Amino acid sequence: MKLIKYSDYTGEENMQIDADILENAIASGAKEPVFRLYGWKPKCISLGRNQKDEFLTGEIPAVRRLTGGRALLHDNEITYSYVSPASLITNGESVVESYKYISGILIDFFRTLGVELDFGENKRVSTHFDYCMLVSTGADVCYQGKKLIGSAQCRKQGYILQHGSILFDYDKELLERLFGEEVRGITCIKEIMPDITKKDIIDRLESFIKA
């Protein structure tokens, strides 16, 4: 697996880099998965490919993703993207199974830190929820029933792009102001492991991917 180490970019830059990785993989017929880690400066809202944007206030810059799903505030988090031929993934033609395969990399990593994560339940939710982390799909990654990692996926010409948000910390007041919804049922690394730093998580995750 090829690793692209963590760096911060604007929202537009991040989405373009992920799109370029996907397009380059398709053009070259790449057989090796690419795993990228990144952050967002300044903080940014990303919208799902077909999501309506009426709720946006203009307080935070926004960008549209290639992938579906609902909006995310990218602030104090670690974002990942994974590009691979679907054929390299067991049952890769299944969207849910490929989600679980890719997200399983992160579950295995957190296990090395002594943190047991699992997949959340697929719950029916009110369609007014604009914030992705309030929606449980059954392929999200949770800690003790609370969502920690939200992911989204797209497919093109036999290749998969999956990217997602690993919450290091979050500003509940800001989220509720931006999305107009009560934020509940989520957690973050800082709550689970209060003594670990964001840099330490990034360094350890990069070492895990390279191993």
Q: Mind explaining what this structure looks like?
A:
The chain is of the alpha+beta class and 211 residues long. The chain has helices at 11-28, 95-112, 172-179, 189-192, 198-210; strands spanning 2-9, 34-40, 44-47, 62-64, 72-74, 77-85, 118-119, 141-143, 146-156, 159-167. The strands form two sheets. Strands 1-2-6-10-9-8-7 form a seven-stranded mixed β-sheet, with helices on both faces. Strands 4-3-5 form a three-stranded mixed β-sheet, with helices on one face. The longest helix is centred in the first third of the chain and has 18 residues, at 11-28. It starts with a strand and ends with a helix.
Defining traits:
211 residues, alpha+beta, 3-stranded mixed sheet, 5 helices, 29% helix, globular
What portion of residues is helical? Answer: 25-40%
* Cα Rg: 16 Å
Which outline best applies? Answer: globular
Strand order of the largest sheet: 1-2-6-10-9-8-7
Measured by DSSP, the beta-strand proportion falls in: 25-35%
How is this fold's topology laid out?
Elements (H helix, E strand, L loop, with lengths): L1 E8 L1 H18 L5 E7 L3 E4 L14 E3 L7 E3 L2 E9 L9 H18 L5 E2 L21 E3 L2 E11 L2 E9 L4 H8 L9 H4 L5 H13 L1
Parallel strand pairs: 1-2, 3-4
Antiparallel strand pairs: 2-6, 3-5, 6-10, 7-8, 8-9, 9-10
